[in-house]
Amino acid sequence: MRLLGSKRQAASAPVELPEVSDSVVLSVGGGKIPARVIERSPAELVVAITVPARPFSEAQLGGLRVEYVNPRGRVRLAGTLASQDPSDPEVVRLTAPRSVEVLQEREFVRIRSARPVLVVCAGAGGSVQSYTVDVSGGGLLLAGPDTLRVGDELSFRLTLTEGVTPVTGSGRVVRLDAQGRRAVEFTSISDLDRRRLVRFIFECQRDERRRGLDGGGRG
User: Fold this and answer.
1) pLDDT digits over 141-156, tens only?
2) How many whole angstroms separate alpha carbon 36 and alpha carbon 24?
3) Considering the chain, what percentage of its residues have pLDDT values greater than 70?
4) Per residue in 154-195, pLDDT tens?
5) Is residue 50 part of a domain?
6) Where in the sequence is the domain holding 163, given as residue range(s)?
7) Total number of domains in the chain
8) Cis ω on the peptide bond leading into residue 145 (within 30° of 0)?
9) Is 174 part of a structural domain of the chain?
């Protein structure tokens, strides 16, 4: 997993809030706490922390930020934060959310992930079942097929999760790496499918961070 390049900019576009069930991160005091959206409206978000947590102090709530990924990049939200219920510190409400920063990526975050992908080659015709070596919001690294050459156009059906509708789109082979694997840049993909792909990548990152937690605390 690597970030290939990024640029910070002030957020000028309207805030595009995450959807219910989307994964987010609560950033406080240099720590990152995984959470999930459980309620959403244009004026507020309610998120549930997904690891054991202690109650936040007033100072912590004042500095708390909600971070998530959308097709524009990684978004950081501020607003008025309060515990939903003092007896339940793992549920936090953010009202009047505003974007304070967008980390726009020149190239999307890329993660290593072997996922089944059906490749349909535009020139040669026919389809070939292959798999990804890594994936990003902007393209794929394919293990094959060997018949693909730089500049070839293709369409794809990428299975992120078994039993869930595949991500589909089209792309172009832009390079071959030292092992002969094909780097494909997306030329057409719906906003919905790109969001699904970015969300999948974020979930993989979250799971990786969770595996690295020491003792399941806040850190």
Assistant:
1) 999 888 888 888 899 9
2) 6
3) 81
4) 999 999 988 899 999 999 898 888 788 999 988 888 888 888
5) yes
6) 110-200
7) 2
8) yes
9) yes
